[in-house]
Design a protein that fits this description.
Radius of gyration: 24 Å
Largest sheet: 6 strands, mixed
Strand order of the largest sheet: 1-2-6-3-7-18
Helix content: 25-40%
Number of strands: 19
Structural class: alpha+beta
Oligomer: single chain
Shape: elongated
Distance between the termini: 23 Å
Order of helices and strands: HHEEEEEHEHEEEEEHEEEHEEHEHEEH
């Protein structure tokens, strides 16, 4: 009998693993994987100022190639549970859709990968390949929806210390836009946050000659920084862009010129830049616009959200071919969207993201069609068959 991705998804949803709580989800996966013959490791990492995070690494097989399925069992909070049609951790099925927090992002993706792997092993007598070679691994974290400090980055370091090496990775994030099979994520833009601070001189509005209004300088610099594109993009990425997200002077007095003005911004950038080259470009443009009349500085927020791309090739074609065979769709190779744990995995092996359709992720009544769970399982199964052929 084939493994049931619907039952596996339901059981995971019923584990209230709101980040960074484990909630029983990793314990459930450990039980299923251990019964299938995997060597399972539960590893907890700590960081000053952050909550402890439990993670899981499991492997079956001792030789290469080692294909990794990665993901996270932690979910965002459900919010006001009274606004849900069905309880967010009930895993109820209504009109052929499975409801629950994490159904799409991304317990459903993990369940489909698990079901596909169990079926693949059963068809090969409990082995990855008939000749006994090859390995399959699961790399599952518990804080992807959080600050991503004690999860995948440290789990990858731990694996390296144990001598674990990876050949390729499929990350089951909800990559598809409208329909299952329409999009494979082969990369992600980087994300960099900063604050522009303009210094002035406080004073009475009736005597502006005695003050220096920083708001004037802030407006000048904000305009200048958004006047020119950061780049033109390339074959894999759309152009980088800078967006200001807040402006604050902290001034509650209407007749007082403030002494300082701040503007926060975020940059989503492509591989035309590194974080350091991007900072240098922004600061250069600001200095040019400021001249000698505006006093300012930048405060940059540390970021581990670096840009990456997996070049199209045999591995991406293996995934795309399986998708075409099952859905009849030719997926777009995309680098749009926010960040994911793939940005850490890319330093260890080529990685692509392919999972469910992301339309209801993080929403009230998050849900997934039963048909999509079954189809994604078949796609993962075909990826395994082709990869280890």
């Amino acid at each position: 009998m084939s493994a049931d991705p619907v039952a596996l998804t339901r059981d995971l949803i019923r584990c209230p693993s709101v980040t960074p709580a484990e909630g029983g989800a990793l314990g459930y996966l450990e039980s299923v994987l251990a019964k299938a013959g995997f060597r399972v490791h539960r590893v907890t990492f700590q960081e000053p100022g952050a909550e402890d995070v439990e993670n899981l690494y499991a492997r079956i097989g001792d030789s290469g190639p080692n294909l990794v399925f990665a993901g996270h069992t932690d979910v965002v909070p459900p919010g006001d549970e009274a606004t849900w049609t069905k309880p967010p951790f009930s895993g109820e099925i209504v009109k052929n859709e499975l409801y629950g927090r994490g159904a799409v992002d991304m317990k459903g993706g993990i369940a489909c990968a698990l079901a596909a792997v169990l079926d693949h092993l059963a068809a090969n007598g409990g082995k990855v390949r008939g000749d006994g070679t090859g390995s399959i691994s699961f790399l599952i974290t518990g804080d992807e929806e959080g600050i991503a400090v004690n999860g995948t980055p440290k789990l990858l370091q731990w694996c390296a210390q144990q001598g674990e090496t990876f050949s390729h990775c499929v990350l089951g994030e909800p990559s598809n836009i409208e329909n299952l099979g329409d999009t494979i994520k082969i990369g992600r833009r980087g994300s960099l946050n900063g604050t522009l601070i303009v210094h002035g001189k406080q004073g009475h509005v009736a005597y502006p000659q005695r003050a220096d209004n920083p708001i004037r300088g802030l407006v000048t610099l904000v305009t200048a920084l958004q006047a020119q594109p950061l780049d033109q993009g390339n074959d894999n990425f759309q152009p980088s862009h800078l967006e200001f997200t807040s402006v604050d002077v902290g001034n509650k007095t209407v007749n007082l010129i403030p002494g300082e003005a701040r503007a926060r911004f975020n940059i989503r950038y492509n591989d035309c830049h590194t974080q350091e080259s991007l900072k240098a470009l922004i600061e250069e443009r600001a200095f040019k616009a400021a001249g000698d009349s505006i006093r300012f500085k930048f405060e940059w927020q540390p970021s581990n959200a670096n840009v990456f791309v997996t070049a199209p090739g045999p591995f991406t074609e293996t995934v795309a071919s399986a998708i075409r065979d099952v859905t009849g769709r030719s997926p777009v190779l995309s680098t749009t969207g926010g960040t994911s744990d793939a940005r850490f995995i890319t330093h260890h092996c080529p990685v692509v993201e392919f999972g469910l359709v992301g339309q209801t992720m993080h929403q009230v009544d998050e849900r997934v069609p039963i048909a999509d769970l079954r189809a994604l399982t078949v796609i993962y199964r075909k990826i395994l068959e082709n990869y280890f052929a």
